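step: validate -> pass
step: tokenize input -> pass
step: predict -> running
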Amino acid sequence: MTLSLLGGAVVLLAVFVVLEARVPEPLLPLRMVLDRNRGGAYLCLAVVFVGMFGLFLFLTFYLQRDLGFSPLVCGAAFLPLTVGIMIGATLIGTRLAPLVPARPLITAGFLVGASGLVVLAQITPTGSYTTVVLPGMFVMGLGLGTVLMPAVGLATHAVTPRDAGVASAMVTTAQQIGCAVGTALLNTVAATATAAHLREHPPLDPATALTATARATVHGYSTAMWCAAGILAVVGVAAAALIDHRPRTTAVRSADEGGDGHRRTPVREAGPS
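step: predict -> pass
step: emit ->
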């Protein structure tokens, strides 16, 4: 059933692409995603939410079931992730996007986010929030927050008025796809790893069944986080190959070609529309 649904999704996606390439007024003009910078930005936005929402799912279970946090304390425990995203997006991404080419900024952000997931992958059933979870969440948020601002800026950069709505809608679509795929994919990885661990390390008696189950479950969470870290690292490298936008040269060229005597600032060029 699962393989059939996946195969059907691929077929429907192919049909959608064929139709969009032929109809006179496409819902999604293919030029929007075939542009290397814009297409790379959409990919980056989707993958950011793959890692982020997978993290939400597993850490919520881990903090409440294994570390014994109440729902209220668990919510507060996610604040380091929020702080990291805020710093990455407002103090790093926003300030550097007008000055630094998007390629190194986005790649570095993904690698930092992946390193945060590597830290989080060290969780154990009796682990510590302050030494593993807190720093891992903060570092991941810092990296992914750094990716968000230049990626959104590239996704909506220099679009014509007729494509402005499509470019903006694709930002939201990429995020939603990342949320859905990330939750489903990483949950499948975690469930498979948990089942395999239980088969390899079955409880010796009923008294140890609960401990063995907790150990296997946390092993599944850790495996999923390793997987998410690998995805972030791979996409960071792919972004380095796809994206070649340079804010300053683009700004100067646009001012020179405009012919209206008004030079647009690099901040306007690189920032989100």
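step: describe -> The chain has one domain: 30-270.
step: cleanup -> pass
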